[in-house]
Amino acid sequence: MAPQPGNHIAELGKVHLMGVGGVGVSAVARLLLDYGVAVSGSDAKDLPVLEGLRERGARIHIGYDPQNLGDADTVVISSIIKPGNAEYDEALRRGLKIMHRSEGLEATMRGHQQVVTIAGTHGKTTTTSLTAHMLKTASAAPSFAVGANIPSLGTNAELGRGEIFVAEADESDASFLNYRPNVIVVTNIEADHLDHYGTAEAVHQAFVEFARLLPEDGLLICCADDQGANDLARKMRAERPELRIQTYGFADHADRRLSNARALDNGRFEATIEWGSGQSHILNLAVPGEHNLLNAAAALAVGMDAGLEIEEALVALGSFAGAARRFEFKGSGNGVRVYDDYAHHPTEVDAALKAGRAVAGNGKLHVIFQPHLFSRTQEFYRQFAQALSLADSVRVLEIYPAREEPIPGVTSELIAQRIEVPSEVLTPLAAVAHAVEYAEPGDVVMTIGAGDVTELGEQIVAALSFD
């Protein structure tokens, strides 16, 4: 039986979601619709995701207007909704219950026997996707909420019939502290979102507070290869010896140890994974890169805790084809393959380019990179340049500002002038033209960044095909 709506869901009444086109808020909307809640929503733009919500019966408005609230009892908002938004201000005036997106998601988690939250500076979307795909393929019928659309799942959120809820836990604004998990996966902990936290120490402390939310019989799964995640496992072992704590990775001290990672001639990637005494298996994936082997090892640890048979879990993981904007294949033309990736932190860019290198083989790797946020560029421009130097050529777009105002002296040139391979700052149109002109059969082109650079992939494929 599917989890039934408890009093906490009934008490929400009719729910209006602001910023409903965003991947996080749309996930909450889908789950509430699955529970049978009357849902309405608004967003500044008419995005493709909204049509699916309309088809499910949600009342959707484009643009923010106080009248959009209708007779809502509860309002769920995204992080970008602030005082001064006329719709938000009207909700305040009426005294409606206002919940952050994470609080709305937490409400949909209740009633599940096992809540699995997957956090980390990088890799959490893919790891959550792998875990949900594995459980669903193995007929565990999980509920899930992921920060991307997953082709194999057909959606980014769903209320399943089973007892497990798998959710991506966003650390960017510390809102993951609103969850009450039984299982926590931490893929890595690095300095990021310093516009919110201020210091790297504050980022690490937020993950400590997150781990402290686990109950006495909770399970903490940490990547042994990452210093931040490994330090968290060590700290929690000392602080809360009653917790079950597992580590995974290529490190010798990992509880689930990966080794002999290799790219196969058929385009798949695999490694040996071992644990305990005599447990040794082959982890074979359709998605490239050592970082995805790590992500799959984390998902496997969740599956083992959930009671899946090892072979069943391995087959399910091997059938995962990827998440949207995570080394997503956009197409090919004139013998050139084009991929798009959401990477927007130096560690993510490094992992994406290493995967691109593995796929390109003897071909060249051409990259179009769009920095995301002035503050992140200011903090990491040297590290971005170092990671991007793994390519054969790089074209850097202007910084995608998102929620920020410009910072004097912080431009894409800070990155481009430090890249050790041919690079320059170009407009999107010129960057596409460069890729089409210089990429040869066998090469790989990657568009990388969290902004609108993702729109260029299809343009490149079309131009290559026409050429």
From TrEMBL:
Q: Which residues form the Mur ligase central domain?
A: 118-302
Residues involved in ATP binding: G120, T121, H122, G123, K124, T125, T126
In short, the EC number is 6.3.2.8
- Location, primary (coarse class): cytoplasm
Catalyzed reactions per annotation: UDP-N-acetyl-alpha-D-muramate + L-alanine + ATP = UDP-N-acetyl-alpha-D-muramoyl-L-alanine + ADP + phosphate + H(+)
**What are the GO MF terms of this UniProt record?**
ligase activity
Q: Where in the cell is it found?
A: Cytoplasm
- Where in this chain does the record put each Mur ligase C-terminal domain? 325-451
Arranged from A to Z, the UniProt key words for this protein are: ATP-binding, Cell cycle, Cell division, Cell shape, Cell wall biogenesis/degradation, Cytoplasm, Ligase, Nucleotide-binding, Peptidoglycan synthesis
**Enzymatic class:** ligase
Read off the HAMAP family from this record.
MurC (MF_00046)
Under what name is this protein listed? UDP-N-acetylmuramate--L-alanine ligase
**The species this protein was found in:** Glutamicibacter ardleyensis
- State the gene name recorded for this protein: murC
